[in-house]
């Protein structure tokens, strides 16, 4: 039961109250356990990937550098929401201060915008490596990679800053109960006494532009990659290139499909899709990619798999697997 103190406020609320997933209260213990396991996996897996890439001089190629940045962004994305979700599902503590709510919102949406840009950069990296291998080091120089990463981050900040400003200046004079597991901008905007349509429309349009353009370029890159792969004379080379592409496409599917479903269901399916389904989609969109990315890359990438195994053997048993 919600305390009456959460129902109405006079002026801007000092706190919001996150209810979790409406309609799934009976599953909160299971959700807390599952989410804790996924968050732990995300932290350990991404930290391991960052550690082995930073420590090993043989893993300083552009692909591994992009993967290291992706791991860092995944940690930020998962850490922005998972601890509070676990608190809600395990103890029912859904209170979050006004400033903390908007800080969480900023990091969530900025990190997702950075992640889609990194997936595009990684697709471009694979395109150059497979289609223009002789020019790989000349095209993807350290300066080019740094410029790409900085551009991706600036693009995310430019997108998110106006949205944060619009939401932060909305008047909140009614309910402070957010029917969500985190401060998702549309759920918070609907609590405003003013019309939330401008900020919601801004978010929808710019999210569609960013994600739509990135997906279009990614699709073009992999179309060219597949055409080049199938033209290779060596079956072994075909299988190796195709295996690498499949793991990358799998990561992108796990990120884009729940994300786009969450955005458009919130807009177009509000009446036809149950609220708990909408919230669960938004939650999985932020937790599954950070959890699955290190597993996919760790298992599918031989060099990273060997370095992680060597590092673990050295840490736990004092052994160094130098021969691999």
What number of structural domains do the residues give?
Answer: 1
Secondary-structure element series: EHHEHHHEHHHHH
CATH topology annotation: Rhopdopsin 7-helix transmembrane proteins
Count of individual beta strands? 3
Radius of gyration, in angstroms, nearest whole number: 22 Å
Helix content: over 70%
**What would the average pLDDT be, to the nearest integer?**
82
Distance between the termini: 58 Å
Q: What's the CATH first level? A: Mainly Alpha
Structural class: mainly alpha
Overall geometry: globular
As a percent range, the share of strand residues is under 5%
Task: List low-pLDDT spans.
Answer: 1-10
The fourth-level CATH homologous superfamily is Rhodopsin 7-helix transmembrane proteins
Transmembrane segments: 28-52, 64-86, 106-124, 144-167, 201-225, 246-267, 279-299
GO cellular component, one term: plasma membrane
Subcellular location: Cell membrane; Membrane
Function: Odorant receptor.
């Amino acid at each position: 039961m919600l305390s009456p103190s959460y129902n109405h406020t006079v002026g801007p609320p000092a706190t919001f109250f996150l209810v979790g997933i409406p309609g799934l209260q009976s599953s909160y213990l299971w959700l807390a356990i599952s989410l804790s396991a996924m968050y732990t996996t995300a932290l350990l897996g991404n930290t391991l990937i960052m550690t082995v890439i930073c420590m090993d001089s043989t893993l300083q190629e552009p692909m591994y550098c992009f993967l290291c940045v992706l791991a860092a962004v995944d940690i930020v994305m998962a850490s922005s929401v998972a601890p509070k979700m676990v608190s809600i599902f395990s103890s029912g503590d859904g209170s979050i201060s006004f400033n903390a709510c908007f800080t969480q919102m900023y990091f969530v949406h900025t990190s997702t915008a950075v992640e889609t840009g990194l997936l595009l950069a990684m697709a471009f990296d694979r395109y150059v490596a497979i289609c223009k291998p002789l020019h790989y080091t000349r095209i993807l120089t350290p300066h080019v990679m740094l410029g790409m990463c900085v551009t991706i981050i600036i693009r995310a900040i430019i997108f998110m800053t106006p949205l944060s400003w619009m939401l932060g200046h909305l008047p909140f004079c009614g309910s402070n109960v957010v029917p969500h597991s985190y401060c998702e901008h549309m759920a918070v905007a609907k609590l405003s006494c003013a019309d939330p349509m401008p900020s919601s429309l801004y978010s929808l349009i710019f999210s569609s532009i960013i994600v739509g353009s990135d997906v279009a370029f990614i699709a073009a890159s992999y179309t060219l990659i597949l055409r080049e792969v199938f033209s290779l004379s060596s079956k072994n080379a075909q299988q190796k290139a195709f295996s690498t592409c499949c793991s990358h496409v799998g990561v992108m599917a796990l990120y884009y499909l729940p994300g786009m479903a969450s955005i458009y269901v919130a807009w177009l399916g509000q009446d036809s899709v149950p609220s708990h389904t909408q919230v669960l989609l938004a939650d999985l969109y932020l937790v599954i990619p950070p959890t699955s990315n290190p597993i996919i890359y760790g298992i599918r990438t031989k060099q990273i798999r060997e370095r992680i195994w060597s590092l673990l053997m050295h840490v736990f048993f004092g052994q160094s697997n130098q021969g691999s």
